[in-house]
């Protein structure tokens, strides 16, 4: 199974640069071709006059400015004949250089735009400003912040996973940003259990996850592995099963102290990670599951590389408590005095939080096979999701007892990947509620594009809502008709009763 990559949305500044560049080129060509245009002006003018007379009421032409040619949200105004002539003469060159900017198509499209009802988005239960910022900026959304149980929202965005009642209250046209049972991927103990089952059945295909044990259930297995190690005793990372952001994590190479630990996940430490600038790092990659059955997975092409703040050393008794060497969690390292925050989008390879693309570029410059690495990362993502897919799919069928084509749920997961010195990727964990905090410009642009592309992919519209309303109206009409029929039947029955009662009375009077 292949993962489809979706492109990140271009930023506003890049669009303005393209438009400005295109405007300057068009203006310069107009000046160079002024003499040739003057010779054929009469012929072109007559043709354009005939065209304008036919479409005089509804045609609108772009007014060309020095720095801006066309804005998607600005109104079109009439232009001079010279503008029309220059556009006609340079149309072929425009289409070759800028195939995405066809003026004729854009004008015709704008002419027949109809006012559509806005999509209602409920953001009452999200704290992230970037989510609010994106939804408020996109003109197709009507954002609500006062949640009502009977709300008619199309889309709801919630920061935490949902309860059973939340899914039961959903209407057929509504979407929500979490799957029921997504903890099967997001909680460390459940993910480890799912991958352990798959490893037992497919040992060669599920060796991308470090050896992991769940306490207290698998303490005896951990003990057996530890004492069978002939070489130096391995180090382990001990993680609370339900915590995040590096809380409660510590390193150890003894297991006696772990015997009485409950609700912990023990993971074998990767001693020889791949280093950049002498620092240990991991990758945060964003994955969208659009539908769970059939399974539709999308990998966002950009991500984050999170670095430790102290030069790497293999763990020993002297440094095992210095977590800034061994852990790459951003929430932990940002408090260290040596932490450097990235302040420039153009220089995304500086600091202790960098872009995923800058890491790939660094690997490629060193001669590593980046395509092979990406293929292995995609396989890790797909195989991990497959391990939990049956459970999530069954739960969704329970709550979505309909088959109307509406994909009720979607979810963005944060996959944490670490690369060893042989460029072999390993899955550390999966986050089903990844942070959308934007502490730096790099954070802002990556997460903004991620949310925009997600909203485009899930394709929320009012069609399902209109079908739902029509179905309700149809059911009401049926109920009304049934009531009328019952009323008529009752009237007929009553009249028949009265008729027979009168007959009985007449009969009794006659034969007394």
From TrEMBL:
InterPro entries attached to this UniProt entry: TTL/TTLL_fam (IPR004344)
Keyword ATP-binding recorded: yes
Organism for this UniProt entry: Ichthyophthirius multifiliis (White spot disease agent)
Biased composition (Low complexity): 33-51
Keywords: ATP-binding, Ligase, Nucleotide-binding
The protein, known as: Tubulin-tyrosine ligase family protein, putative
GO MF entry, a single one: tubulin-glutamic acid ligase activity
UniProt record, GO biological process: microtubule cytoskeleton organization
Main EC class the enzyme belongs to: ligase
PANTHER family, sorted: TUBULIN POLYGLUTAMYLASE, TUBULIN POLYGLUTAMYLASE TTLL7
GO CC terms, sorted: ciliary basal body
